[in-house]
## 1
Amino acid sequence: MNYEPIYTNLRTTAERGMVFAAIEVLIDALYKKGGDINSLIETEMPNAVVRPLKQALTQLPDTSPKAMHAYLEGLRKQLAMLRTLSLEIAFDPTEETIAVLTGWIREYLGNDIIMDLSIDRGLFGGARVSYEGRYKEINLAMLIENTIQQQNESIHAILEHTSV
Amino acid sequence: MFVLRLISNGMNDKFASYLNATGEVGYVRRVVSSLTYVEGLPSVRPYERVMFENGTYGYVNAFTEELVETISFSEVPLPAGLRVARINEQLSIPVGEELLGMMIDPLGRPLRQDTSWISPKKYRAVDTEPLPIRARARITEPCITGITITDIMVPLGKGQRALIVGDQKTGKTSFLLRTIISQIREGSVGIYVTVGKSKIVIRQIEDTLTQAGVFDRVIVVAAYAEDPAGIIHLAPSAGMTIAEYFRDAGEDVIIVIDDLSMHAKMHRELSLLGRRPPGRNSYPGDIFYIHARLMERAGNFITPVGERSITCLPVIEAAHGDITGYIPTNTISMTDGHLFFDYNLYVEGRRPAINPFLSVTRVGKQIQPPIAKEINQLLTTFLSSARQLETVTSFGAELNEQLKITLEKQRNVNLFFNQLSNEIIAPPLQLYLFSLIWTQQWKDMPPEKVEKELHTTISRYTSDASFRKQVDMLITKATSLDALLALVQKNNKK
């Protein structure tokens, strides 16, 4: 089964967590009398996923609870397998920022990747990125520190020259 | 609408510096007791130290296809999701002269807060390759224990790996402490490793060594029973690392590992938690390798300053006197002999309860002084035939004079081997006492009287310098056992 139209609409681990919770609710509702799956999808799922999920369910060859259950389980497994890129930034990202970041990351790493966003107010002018065990911290403080270390001698010379 | 993880306190500086230095990060994905499975850290190596985001440390134990199995030193299970940084160095502990007279944990941290602690500057890896055969020498010096039955019947050599095996509460610790004290008085450095022992036992060990005035030449590496399995498991290797440091610094070292059966249990626990296939008695397949690798780090070595030894005395607790169990037989096969502490002898009142017939030394006899060697041969034959005789007499057979003498001699030899728990007997005195027993100086005396005479002679040797000199001279003068017996008889007639 193709889950790509659904997971490409997810961008962060937080959104994925919401989908996981919603899948639980949907699976429960499948076997209840009078359970309206479509309205549950609208209320429980993140907006970005509602339409592709509804479409995928309607296109299923068999719409019995058992078949839908299998589809949702498959979706859950697929979501768990998504690769994660951790990103620490110093500010609350807007929707637009998240969209830009996701687009940029997917351009280089593929569609099956989501971001684990977190905030560290102590970071100034930069970010910490980790992906598949690799870690990189790029921020203003570190850049200044590195530059001072690398240019230590020339900075000293300038300071001595100025004091004379 | 997005739930974001807020890192309020910022990152631990040390942790951050490790992350930046290696450019690698891992995340705790699964925790099973002390075992922590980490995703990430692509270039991490076995036995490399890692730091968890909460400030605790651990080391890499194994790899699965996707995860890194680490052993954490945290006392509480770590939460999943925690970040992990590589430290890019092998698991190592501080070593140096500063450790002498200290009680440390297997990671080299001081355990007594009231002592003045100067942290050593040097570090050594805990898991190292044993030195190759070309770096080893034949054992040439005896390792004096101060215990008569050992020094005469099952002698040890410096650099020997001698297993101490026996039931619980059969006097093993007392024997080990006296051996360490004797060796320290001869100039060695002592290392006492406790593996999962209670605090009270460790305190008693510390007190005994302090009272003997040798604690400033001892390092106690203590892993308490309540420590995490990862720490307890590390204790023998940590002790051996310290021993290797002192060997390379030009010292002879004696190391006691009390006990290796607990270490085996810890290894089994960690292996089962790591879902490795269990073998005999549920121990993993590599238990022999782990212990043999540890034992191979001891021996007599050729160093730039001459031959230096690491004498290793690992302890194995046998259940109900059974030394045919998996771990006892393994360790018996990888050591150079064993001393068997017999529960039945202990109950009979023999101290130490070493059974000379079930004990073996594969090294000690070749370097035993000639007279002691003669006594050894003589007593092996005598005690064995006397034991058979004892069986016959137990049926109530009438005894002739010769048999009575033999049985009395046997009783006195056993009394001669009996030692108080704090008694250390110097080798010349051991030979002198044997001569007294063998020449029947205390003939027809009741056992209590013989015992009293023995203790009087021992305390006289310690307190009376002229008597000590006289005994030492007698022993030096004697060229053979017969000559010694003649000299002692002559001396006593005077």
## 2
Amino acid sequence: MKFEKQAFLVALIGILLFGCKKKEEENTLANYNRSALLTHYYDRLIMPAFQSLDGAAKALENTSIRFANEPTQANLLQARESLDSAFKVLQYVHAFDFGPSELPTGSLTQEIGTFPVDTNQMEVYMAEADTNFNNFRRDTRGINAIDYLLWGKKQRQSDIMLSVDTNAKKRAYIRAVARHFSAQVAIAKNNWLNYKATFIGSTGTEAGSSIANLFNTYNIGFETLKNFKLGLPLGRRAGQSQAEPHKVEAYFSGKSTGYALRHFQHILQVWEGMGANGIDGPGFREYLLAAKEQGARLVADTEIQVNKAIEAGNNLPLNEPLAGLIATNDQRAFDFFNELMATTRFFKSEMASITGIAISYNSGDGD
Amino acid sequence: MKIQSIDKPIWIFPLVTFRVVFGFAGLLGVLRFWHLGWIADQYIEPGFHFHYQGFEWVEPLPASGMYLVFFVQAFSAIGIMLGAWYRISAFAYFVTFTYVELIDKAYYLNHYYFVSLAAFLLMFSHAHHFFSVDVWRKPSLKSLKVPAFEIWILMALIGIVYTYAGLAKINSAWLLDAQPLALWLPPHYDMPLLGSLMRLEFTPYLFSWAGMIFDSTIVAWLLWNRSRPFAYIVLVLFHVVTGYLFPIGMFPTIMSLIVLIFFSAKWHLKWQKEFISKARMCVATAQVHVPTAQVRVPTKLKSDAQFGLQIPWQRLKLLLFAFFLLFQLMFPWRYLLYPGNLFWTEDGYRFSWRVMLVEKLGHIDFYVQENGDSQKKLVYLNEWLNNQQIKQMSFQPDMILEFAHHMSHVFSSNGIPAKISAECYVTMNGKPGKLYFDPEMNLAEIPKWTPGYKWLLP
């Protein structure tokens, strides 16, 4: 009798604990394989993005140094081409600007992607032959500094070549900035290479977990696009009395429109879990869908808004400089910004609520 | 209950344990806060703080001053724990802790509020009259008894915390929809031991009901001699599990330690006695002369009425405690005076032991329209607030208003305040985000401290 009772209890507990598992093969938040999600992000999105950036940074370093050593037109054009390539691939690391991307003087995109650059201060450093970059003046180095050095303020190619040819300090600065850029990228890439086990092993959703880090940095990346690549030059920030078109990214080469759209594409790819080579896999979208009706509802709502933003983005003339669009009060630039504004809340608060991903970086306590 | 029985001297030992563990937890709390870099994150770096009504004058000190405050807090916690210069320590701890909490309500936590209240009560207690450095310094201080109300008021406060937290859980979302636990628990399917339980659909219901019953009745089980040990085990398990699942910081540690006050005087005396005899052995082997009277623990305890109500100060204290208790019983119900759903409006939400009751997040964009400007501009919140402040503000009307008023002032031109509007979407328990109030409204025109937030959308 006693044995029967115990057996019954064991069976009951067994059914309770494992019984439902067989029935529910579909993805739910209660069985979602977060490790697979992280592995996909790491293998298909993060590492390819850093490998590409690393390759582009090395190419930019080589071509810039070649141009500094030998300021010919061919070398200038080659360096500019490398710059364009580097700018393009740089757009795909914004959501991964945490953990291994944290460098002593800030995150990778802060260290090498700050804009607008302070050209006056750059000229001062150049004149002083100060190229150690051991300071927090991130607006005197990085890819936007190279943008200034290779393009100048609406200067002709011959003038740029001449100014480099006749100025040893400028040549030294170009070499130093290019080396610094490439070195910082290499550090981040190598950090990421060694971070795989840690990244994939942190499968929780609490503050500091890989998913929370990715989710929160993803949102910062989105805000960078909205607030700084668009809002600030558009003059949308409280306290600005007018538009400030020169505050766009890549102001001197004037290819900012395309870069902003790539940045947006990166945001969408991370949302989808779309790998660099077009391989779709688990992503935030799929994770949300695991949250049943609530998740499906949010995905639908989000995508309605995201599609509006995509449409607004597609309306932008890819080959016209963003600064020019802003200077001429082009409505298309405002529309894109406004649609991004309307998108924010879907990516942030609602998604965090439904998935239980911590919305903070360092866990402030709750109760 | 007769006045005499409230005043009746009872064994001091539970109060002594409370003092020791409270000081210990307090010290741990400061060290943790310091170590995590939160002094700078929360009190030095932000340029703006969210004030409490009536305490608008409380502002943080410059960096070195803030570190000094926490330094004093740590030392006074040690003072409480050891019973060293106890009155000064308890006073310093209460003042520094409460001061820090009053600086910014973005960091409000129920257990911080509890710590402030308990520290307030400890200032008036005789918790240092046994097992303390003060008794070692001044043996005449030693007393084995204290008036009953000094212990009972602490038990009552703990009782209110749990019971009110339990009562707050009696609502349809918590009990019938198992919200917010239905959102919070499933992602923890990989936790040790209980992981597989988290995969089941009924688990949030089980946890919701168990949580409600636990909070509402735990004090009764702790009061009853026969159930007490079992109740304490359940309580510790409860706090360990919730501490694992949710980011609630020091709360589980504090509660697990301080409820020891419910244990019998005999139980407390046992460990204190053992500690003293061990300490005496250490001291003896070190060949230091210690008068035996200071460490002797009598086997037979005598009654002591030196704290009776014939002393006017004791009468005054009793009155103070009675008022304190009445306030604690009444204040959490103030929300009944305000219109609307409490969880939505948060009007009367704080200081009421509503703990982890709702999954609520918001997204807010503030817009400034300066006088004479046709366009409204976006406030980049990160330039004004830290993440915790932004997160808390995004769904709390009083904070939204205070920040709006601040922005209006900052962007005033020629003495004319700027118009401030905001688009705010709030999501509760995973439901679609809803507009919190009219995005065209000028928030700067709404008076800051008026309760009954009629400007919110339903």
